[in-house]
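Section: Multi-chain targets

For targets with more than one molecule, the full set of components is provided together so that the structure can be written out for the assembly as a whole rather than chain by chain. Components appear in the order listed by the source. The example entry contains four components.
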Amino acid sequence: MDPAFDALQPLTVSELARRTGVAPSALRFYEAQGLLHAERSAAGHRRYPRAVIRRVAFIIFAQRLGLSLAEIRAALDQLPRDRVPTGDDWQRLTHTWHARIAERIAELERLRRGLTDCIGCGCLSLDSCRILNPFDQAARHGPGPRYWLGDPCPAQ
Amino acid sequence: MDPAFDALQPLTVSELARRTGVAPSALRFYEAQGLLHAERSAAGHRRYPRAVIRRVAFIIFAQRLGLSLAEIRAALDQLPRDRVPTGDDWQRLTHTWHARIAERIAELERLRRGLTDCIGCGCLSLDSCRILNPFDQAARHGPGPRYWLGDPCPAQ
DNA sequence: CTAATTGTTGAAGTGCGATTGAAGTCAATA
DNA sequence: TATTGACTTCAATCGCACTTCAACAATTAG
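Its structure, encoded as tokens over all components, is:
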């Protein structure tokens, strides 16, 4: 009998992969990075408690919001280790993300505006146009600063 | 005299870097990838026509929208080679991006909703919840499919 | 003239987020 | 018993977007 039919059994890596859409190789990678943990069967196979699905969902959400795995790990480390996290536990983690989402939406709206006002228009204001969010960009580590310097576009 | 003061002179790589916020190494990399082209001075130094600023702006915008350099190159290849692109030329390129931005904003709003409805809530609906956009995800090449399968969350 | 600055090239290195492959283990089935 | 299939580990590799480095050439300031 397919163990996936038994809602009380822990999940194998391929079952978890099927349920989350995340490849088994990625799940193992996440475990190596400390984002997931699994019990082991007698044969050394991973056995995931069902609560791990929510954890993987969290990882996917966070990635879509642009967080790195290191950041996601730091967030997940805030969860209680001694019990299954409650809805409140999860909500505390995602509390600050609403602001993050709002910022990203705002940036997209600036981008949309920039498409017409600065890229699309025939003016030469690009030299002195600020469309991309400097704060957003300054927060980026590593390669490619990419902030647009100067004063607002005269077209605005 | 600083040649940057002369609005009619072509730009050196460091001037272009300063005006766009893109590192010289990145500008050279873009040239190697076929996204930019430059005339050369007698000494073999790059001389960018001023119109290249708009081109770099386009690259930055496109990157923030999640396009790869290969995709951006394909878009830029649509521009006329025999003359400086007009506003209309640029707008034709960015035409489809408005839809792209709208989709991404919609995804962020689903994500925001999912934070409360599915991650944060105490229900067990995650097993059968679809928050992340399957179409978006299916469009992703390479690693990490990450689509959420199944029926909509009962909480919705 | 000298020294600093800015530029050139090609190759190699970096960081992230994985995937892939080789070699081996284990349980169930033909 | 043999084989199939799912799993294990560890190391290597990949794709992307760059950055860094070494060695050298040219320009510019004092």
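The beta strands of chain B are 39-40, 46-47.
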